[in-house]
Write a structure and sequence with these properties.
It is built from nine helices and eight strands. By secondary structure, the protein is of the alpha/beta class. It has an eight-stranded parallel β-sheet with strand order 2-1-3-8-7-4-5-6, with helices on both faces. Helix 3 runs parallel beside helix 4.
């Protein structure tokens, strides 16, 4: 990676020893099947971040002062399986250092490694997936570490909640838990999806965001854009509520495929990352100690998709 620090912040806020936040770039695009370019996503994201204002108006905060350490990129690409293991190892190592760990891809297959690491460190983990695609194939093109398999393992080992889905293969219906799946066409007609999905989450939540969850009108530069996606403010409002009501333990953002003729997507990704950090740390002073709390609750949340007793 050419970039030396996240958003061009000074060494005072970018040292590993004092930073609360770690950002791991994973420039990997080994299994994508249509538009290539996700391996260029991390560099485009970091470049956009350098040109972004660092005062967040909504939270009245400058979250970079919590400290953001830009880790060495995970560049393993000898095989999808080797990449997943390298991401898993790097992610887990920084969780153990008591950091709030974030990852920027790369294609969605990197999330197999990130989710595996968080699931090993937090019991009863909820994985919240914002995505246009279900990504629930057990295996695709000869590999279980394909981008089309990004959350299959999570569906078997965590409390997976899928939001924004609008494209899938029929075979994925045999794996999908429709009680915990919020399809885009349903969400467009019924806004109770926000509260009902949060009610289904356990206390600790890992968020994985495929940028194609957004409508192509605001996020065209992604590998497989799908019409009918989420818009900016509804997504932020939802994420803000998740961060407020749950303990978000980390997140990844994937599938930025930069286009040199279209820079708005790069800036959307950069702003989204910064907003999520702002929501996580909006109540913390820069000098406060950080505890990533991988001492976790034991209960399992099995709330129904739509509880008739709930009032919205």
């Amino acid at each position: 990676m050419q970039t030396k620090s996240y958003a061009g912040i000074s060494e005072e806020f970018s040292k590993l020893e004092t930073a609360k936040i770690v950002l791991i770039p994973v420039p990997y695009d080994g299994t994508s099947t249509w538009q290539k370019g996700a391996d260029k996503g991390p560099e485009a994201f970091l470049s956009a971040s350098e040109n972004m204002e660092l005062y967040d108006i909504e939270t009245e905060s400058e979250v970079y002062k919590q400290g953001v350490y830009l880790a060495d990129a995970v560049t393993e690409n000898s095989s999808p399986e080797a990449m997943v293991e390298a991401v898993h190892k790097a992610t887990k190592s920084y969780i153990k250092k008591n950091k709030f760990v974030t990852i920027f891809g790369g294609e969605h297959s990197i999330s197999i490694g990130t989710i595996r690491a968080f699931n090993e460190m937090y019991t009863n983990l909820t994985v919240l997936q914002l995505d246009a695609h279900a990504d629930l194939r057990k295996e695709y093109e000869g590999s279980k570490c394909n981008h089309a398999c990004a959350v299959y393992e999570a569906s078997q080992t965590t409390n997976l909640i899928q939001v924004g889905i609008r494209s899938m293969d029929v075979i994925e219906t045999t794996v999908m838990d429709k009680e915990k799946t919020y399809f885009a066409h349903e969400m467009a007609m019924d806004d109770t999806w926000v509260d009902s999905s949060i009610d289904q989450m356990t206390e600790n939540v890992f968020i994985t965001i495929d940028l194609d969850v957004f409508d192509p009108s605001i996020m065209p530069s992604t590998g497989t854009p799908e019409p009918g996606g989420l818009l900016w403010y509804e997504t932020l409002e939802y994420l803000k509520q998740v961060f407020t009501e749950k303990n978000v333990v980390g997140f990844d953002i994937v599938e930025l495929c930069p286009n040199k003729e279209e820079k708005s997507s790069d800036f959307l990704a950069a702003k989204l990352y910064y907003k999520m950090l702002s929501y996580k740390f909006q109540s913390d002073d820069a000098g406060d100690d950080f505890d990533n709390e991988f001492k976790t609750l034991k209960e399992k949340n099995n709330s129904a998709k739509y509880n008739e007793d709930d009032e919205y």
